[in-house]
Amino acid sequence: AQDKVRLLLDWFVNPDHAALVVAKQRGVFAKHGLDVELIAPADPNAPPKLVAAGQADYAVSYQPTLQMLVAEGLPLVRVGVLVAQPLNSLVALEDGPVKTLADFKGRKIGYSIAGFDEALLGAMLESAGLTLKDVTLINVNFALTTALMSKQVDGVIGAFRNFELNDLELNKAKGRIWLVEKNGVPTYDELILVAKRETIDVARTRKLLAAIAESTAWLKANPAEAWGIFSKSGKELDSDLNKLAWKDTLPLLADNPTALDRARYETFAAFLVKRGLIKQAPAPDTYLRDMK
Amino acid sequence: MTFVVASPSLSVRGARIAFGDRVVTADLTLEFPGGRTTCLLGRSGVGKTSLLRWLAGLLPGTERAQPIAYMAQRDLLLPWLDLLDNVLLGYRLRGDALARRAAEPRARRLLAEVGLGQRLGDRPEMLSAGMRQRAALARTLCEDRPVVLMDEPFAHLDAVTRLELQDLAARLLDGRTVILVTHDPLEALRIGHQLRVLSGAPFSVGPAIEPPGPVPRDPADPALLGLQGRLIAELRSTPGSTP
Amino acid sequence: MTFVVASPSLSVRGARIAFGDRVVTADLTLEFPGGRTTCLLGRSGVGKTSLLRWLAGLLPGTERAQPIAYMAQRDLLLPWLDLLDNVLLGYRLRGDALARRAAEPRARRLLAEVGLGQRLGDRPEMLSAGMRQRAALARTLCEDRPVVLMDEPFAHLDAVTRLELQDLAARLLDGRTVILVTHDPLEALRIGHQLRVLSGAPFSVGPAIEPPGPVPRDPADPALLGLQGRLIAELRSTPGSTP
Amino acid sequence: MRPLITAIGLLLAWEALAWATGVPVYILPPPSRVAVVLVERFDLLMEQGVWTAAEMMLGLALGLILGATLAVVFAASAGWRRWALPLVIVSQAIPVIAIAPLLVLWLGYGMASKVAMAALVIFFPVVSTLYDGLRRTDPGWLDLAQTMDARPHAVLLQIRLPAALPAFASGARIAAAVAPIGAVIGEWVGASAGLGYLMTQSLARGQTPLAFAALFLLCLLGLALYHATDRVARRLVPWQSSQGE
Amino acid sequence: MRPLITAIGLLLAWEALAWATGVPVYILPPPSRVAVVLVERFDLLMEQGVWTAAEMMLGLALGLILGATLAVVFAASAGWRRWALPLVIVSQAIPVIAIAPLLVLWLGYGMASKVAMAALVIFFPVVSTLYDGLRRTDPGWLDLAQTMDARPHAVLLQIRLPAALPAFASGARIAAAVAPIGAVIGEWVGASAGLGYLMTQSLARGQTPLAFAALFLLCLLGLALYHATDRVARRLVPWQSSQGE
Ligand SMILES: Nc1ncnc2c1ncn2[C@@H]1O[C@H](COP(=O)(O)OP(=O)(O)OP(=O)(O)O)[C@@H](O)[C@H]1O
Ligand SMILES: Nc1ncnc2c1ncn2[C@@H]1O[C@H](COP(=O)(O)OP(=O)(O)OP(=O)(O)O)[C@@H](O)[C@H]1O
Ligand SMILES: [Mg+2]
Ligand SMILES: [Mg+2]
C-alpha cells in the first residue's frame, strides 16, 4: 500500500515547485511508495503552522521563517532543502534614479509580507552606509512588480531573482538587482522542507527526499519535456512568465535535497538575533535533522 | 353558538392610567356586570381607548385575569394572510390545530354574515376600510371568548350595515361580558344593557344608564330618543377638548 | 378667511374604475357643482373611496386639473412631526417658506378650533384616534384649496365634537367645491348642499338630493328626518354586500 | 436585455476610465485587452469560475440560513442576544489571515473551510437587518396577539417574522452583493482554486489582464446572484408595493 | 457595565474554546497568553490601534455620507439608478488586491487610500438598506404629498427620507460592524501602520499572541463603534418604539 503524504507548498504552484509537481505527475513518488498530495495555500505563513498543528506532514517553507517560528516555540524541524541558496533580492528599475544601494536614501521601498524582508533590507542598506530610517518602507503585499513599474516605489525587497526580473521584462521594463547574499546578508536556504518534530517519520522522509532528488535530476536533464508536464498539470500554470522563469529556476534547484550545512544556520540565526527578529538563537539540534 | 359557562364581571379598583405627566384617570373604581353589554361613551380623547387597553392588560403594569377578545380601533389585519386566515388568527397563534379546524366553519359563516362571504381569499389591502373593519369584527366574534372588548367597532360602516352588524353582534355576544366603545349614542342605546359616560380630565365615569327592554332595541322607540337627548347633554356638559 | 377666486365644478365623463377583474364603476358620468358641498353616501365597499381617489388623480391613469385638498380615510399624520408641523405639511412640501410662515397663525388657530390648541407640540402617537382625525381635518382645512375631498372625516369623533366640527367645516369651506364621503345620513343632510347615493356593483350614482335651506342645517328639522328615512331606504334597497 | 445593456455600459465606462486616466495596462488593463484573455484562457477561467460560483452559492445559502436562524434566536431570547450578539459583531472584525489556520484545523483543506469563511462574511447583514426588522413589529399586532393568548413562538413565527420579511429581503440583497468577495476571501483558506486564487496569483506574477478577466467573471457572477436574489426577495413580500422601478 | 460583563464573558468563552479544543498556542493563543502580550507591548499596540481607529472612523463617516447620498440619488432618479446601481454592486465584488494598485496610483500611500478602501467596504450596507427603505414609503403618505402638489425633492427629503430612517439605522449598524475589517482591508493597501499591519507582521513571524492581542484590540474597537452607532441610530427614530431590550 502507498504511504499517504500531505505536503503543503509555500504558496501557489510555481516553477520553484517543479521537482515536486513533476515527481507527482511522472509517478516518481508512487515509485517510492508514496501517495503525495500537494496543497497550495494562499498565505505563505500558514503552512509551517499547520504542519506543527498536525494538519499536514510536510511544508515547503523558508529558512528565516523556520528559524523565527522555532524561536517562537513551534515544534518544527528542517528535513530537506529544495533551493539551497537565497532567491530573495532587492530590485529597482534600470532606468530609474537608483543606480547604487546608496541611492535609496530618502526613497520608498516596497516589501511583501514575508516578515523578514525588513531585516534583510536593513542589513543591505547598512552595507551601503544607510539605515532603515533613511528609507520609507511600504507593505505592497504581493504586487511587487506593479508597485515598481508604476513608480509608486523606487525599489522592492522580496523579489525572487528567478521571477521578478522576468516579470519586468515581460512588461517591457528592465530591472537592476542587488542579491541579498552579496550585500551584507549571510547566505541561507531559500526553500526548505519542514516537518513536525514529535511525529517525524524518518523512513518516509528519506523516501520523499529520494524521490525529489530523482525528479530533480530528471528535470535538469529534460527541461523541455519537464516544462510540458509541469505546464499541463494546471491550466493556470501555462503562462509566459512561468515559461521564462522555468529556465532560470531549474539550475537553482538543489541536486541533493538531503544536504545540510549547519554552519549556514548558525550564522543566519546569529544574523536574525542581531537584527532583532529573534531574541535568542535556538539550539540547532532542536530544529535541524540530518536525513542522509 | 357555543355554550358559554360563565361570563365574569370585570371590576376596576383604584386604577390609575397616565402617560408621563398626563393623568388620564386616577383612582378609578368601576364594575362591569358579567354577561351584559356595557357601552362606553365620552368625548374624543377622554380616555375610552385607554380604559379598554387597561382592561385588556395592554398598558404597562397591567394584567388581565381571564381570556378576552379585543377589537382595537384599527383593524390590525395581517396583510400577508387572506381574510379567512385573518379571522382564524387567534387559533393559529394559540397553536391549537384541532380547535382551528373546528373553528373554520364558524369563521366562514361569520365572514358571510358580515358580508364578506365572497372575499374569503382576498388579502386585506384589496378591501375597503369598512370591509376591513367587518373582517376585524368577524375575527373578534370568532374568538368566542367570555369577555369581549370592542373599540368603535362600527365606525367605518354605513347606516344600514351598521344596524345589521349591531344585530349580529348583539345576537352572538348574548350572555357575554361586552364592553363596547362607541361615539354613536343611538348605537349605545340600541345594544347596550347599560351605558356609561366618561368625562373630565382626569376622567371619571358617570352613573350607569340602563335603557328599558331587551337588546337590540328599536332605535325609533321614543323612550330611546329621550335618553339620547340626555346622553348628548351629558357629553356636552363636560368641557371636552373643543374649547 | 382667504378670498377664494373661483371654485370650479368637477365633472366625471365616462369614467371607469377597476381593480383587476373587479369593476368598481364603468362609464360613470357625473357633475359636482362648483362652490357647493356634495355628500356621497353608499354601502360599505360600494366604491366611495375609489371615486374620491379618482377625482384626486390618485388612481393609475388619472390626473387632476386643479389644486385640491384631500383628507383620506386614515389620518396619515407623519409620526416624526409635531401637530403644528403636520398641519403645515403642504406648505413644507411645496417648499414655499413665505407662504408657510404666513399660514402658521392659521394653522395654530385651526388646531385650537378642532380642540388641539394645547397639543401643538405633541407627536401623533401621543394622541387618541379622534384627536388624530381632528389634526388631519385641520391639515386639510389649512390647505385652503378651492376643491376639498374628504373621506369620512368625522368617523372617529363623538357626537358633540362631530356637530361642532361639522359647523366649523361648513363655515370654513363655504364657497368651495367640497365632496365629502360619510356614513351618517344626518351628517350628510346637515352639511351637504346636495347628497348622492352610490349603489350597485359596478356602482351607479343616484339622483341629487337637495335638502332645503342653508348649511349647516338644524338636525332636529322634521323635513330632514323625512329625508333621512328616504336615504336609509335608498341605501337599504341596494343589495349592499351583506346578504 | 437590461442586464446586457448594463454590462455593455459598464464595459464602456471601464474602457473610458482606462483611457481617460492613462492608467498603465499592468494596473488597469482596458476591457479590449481583457476580452482577448477572456477568450484565450476561457477554459481556465471557466474551471476556476465554477469553483467560485459554487462557493458563492453555498456560502450565500449557509449565510442566509445561519443569519435568519440567529436573528430569530436573538429576537426570541434576550439571554442569547446578550451573549451572542457581541460575538457576532466581533466575528465581523476578524481578518481571514488570523482565522484561516483555525478553519483548516477544524474543517480541513476542502471546500468546507472556504464556504464557512464565505458564510462568515455573508451571514452578518442578514442577522442584522432581520433582527432589526423583528424588533420593529407594529405594536398593535403584538397587542392583538397578547389578547389572543398567543404562544410566544407563534407570535415570533407568524407575526414578527412575516412582518420582518422586507427587512430580511434587504439583508439578503446585501448578502448576495458581498457573496463574491466572501467567496474570494474564503479562497484564502486552505487549498487554492477559484477566481480569487487566480487573481492573486496573476497579479503577483504581473499577468494583470488575466487577473482582470477573472475579476470580470467574478463581477458577472455577483450581478447575476444579486439579481436572482432581488427577484426572490421581491416575491417574498407580495403584499407590499415598492415605489422604485 | 454591560459591555464589561460581555467582554469578560467573551474572554472566558475564548479561553474555554482554546482549552476544550486543544488548539496549539501558535494557532489560537488563550487569552491569558494574549493578556501578557497586551501588557508587555501596550505601547506598540496603542500606537497601531490609534491608526486603525482613525481609519475606521474616517471610513465609517465617509461610508455613511457616501452611502446615504447614493441611496437618495438612486431613489430620486431612475436613470442614475439604472447605471450606477450595478456599479455599486460590482464594487463589492472587487478584492482589495485588484484595486490596491489603482488606489495607490490615485491616492498615494498615505491614509487617503486606506480610508477610501475602508469606505468602499462600509458604504454598501448603507446604500442598500437606505435605498430599500426609501422604496418602501407608505403609499398613503405619497398620495397625500401628491395631492399637496409637493415638489419631488421635498417628498424625498421630508417624507421618504425620515420614513426610511429606521432602514438607515439598520444599514449604519452593519456599516459600524464591518468598519474594523474595512480598516484592516484598507491597511492591505500599501500599509506601514495599523492593527491589521501588525497582525500580518506578527503572524508571519510566528508571534501569534501579539497578533491576537492586536485582534483583541480590533474587536474592542469594533464593539465600541457598534455600540456608539447603535445608540445614535436609536435616537434617530424616537417616534418608533422597538421591542428588543
Ligand atoms: N387596491 C385594491 N385592490 C383590489 N380591490 C380594491 C382595491 N381597493 C378597493 N378595492 C375594491 O373596490 C371596491 C370599492 O372599494 P372602496 O374602498 O372604494 O369602497 P368604499 O365605498 O370606500 O367602502 P367603505 O365605506 O368601506 O370605505 C371594494 O370592493 C374593494 O374591495
Ligand atoms: N401613547 C400615548 N402617549 C401619550 N399620551 C397618550 C398616549 N395614548 C393616549 N394618550 C393620551 O391619553 C388621552 C386618552 O386617549 P384615548 O386614546 O384613551 O382617548 P379616547 O377616549 O379613546 O379618544 P378617541 O375617542 O379619540 O379615540 C389623550 O389625551 C391622549 O392624548
Ligand atoms: Mg379611542
Ligand atoms: Mg372608503
Would you kindly provide a brief summary of this structure?
The complex is a heteropentamer, with one copy of chain A (292 residues), two copies of chain B (243 residues) and two copies of chain D (245 residues). Helix content of chain B is 36%, strand content 20%.
Protein architecture, described:
The complex is a heteropentamer, with one copy of chain A (292 residues), two copies of chain B (243 residues) and two copies of chain D (245 residues). Chain A is an alpha/beta fold. Chain A has helices at 18-25, 28-31, 46-52, 63-71, 117-127, 144-149, 164-170, 202-221, 223-232, 240-249, 262-274, 284-287, and strands at 3-8, 34-39, 58-61, 76-83, 88-93, 108-111, 136-139, 155-160, 175-179, 191-196. In chain A, the strands form two sheets. In chain A, strands 2-1-3-10-4 form a five-stranded mixed sheet, sandwiched between helices. In chain A, strands 7-6-8-5-9 form a five-stranded mixed sheet, sandwiched between helices. The model of chain A has no long low-confidence stretch (mean pLDDT 91). With 243 residues, chain B is of the alpha/beta class. Chain B has two domains: 33-67 and 145-243, Rossmann fold (3-Layer(aba) Sandwich), CATH 3.40.50.300; 77-144, no CATH class. Chain B is built from eight helices and eight strands, in the order βββαβααααβαβαββα. Chain B has helices spanning 48-55, 83-87, 89-94, 97-113, 129-142, 159-172, 185-191, 222-237; strands spanning 10-19, 22-32, 37-42, 68-71, 147-151, 177-181, 194-199, 204-205. In chain B, strands 4-5-6-3-7-8 form a six-stranded mixed sheet, with helices on both faces. A two-stranded antiparallel sheet of chain B has the order 1-2. In chain B, helix 6 links the parallel strand 5 (147-151) and strand 6. The N and C termini of chain B lie far apart (47 Å). Chain D has a single domain, classed as MetI-like fold (Orthogonal Bundle). In chain D, 81% of the residues lie in helices and 0% in strands. Chain D is built from eleven helices and no strands. In chain D, helix 6 (111-135) runs antiparallel to helix 9. Chains in contact: A-D, A-E, B-C, B-D, C-E, D-E. The complex binds adenosine-5'-triphosphate (2 copies) and magnesium ion (2 copies). One magnesium ion is lined by residues 48-49, 73, 151 of chain C.
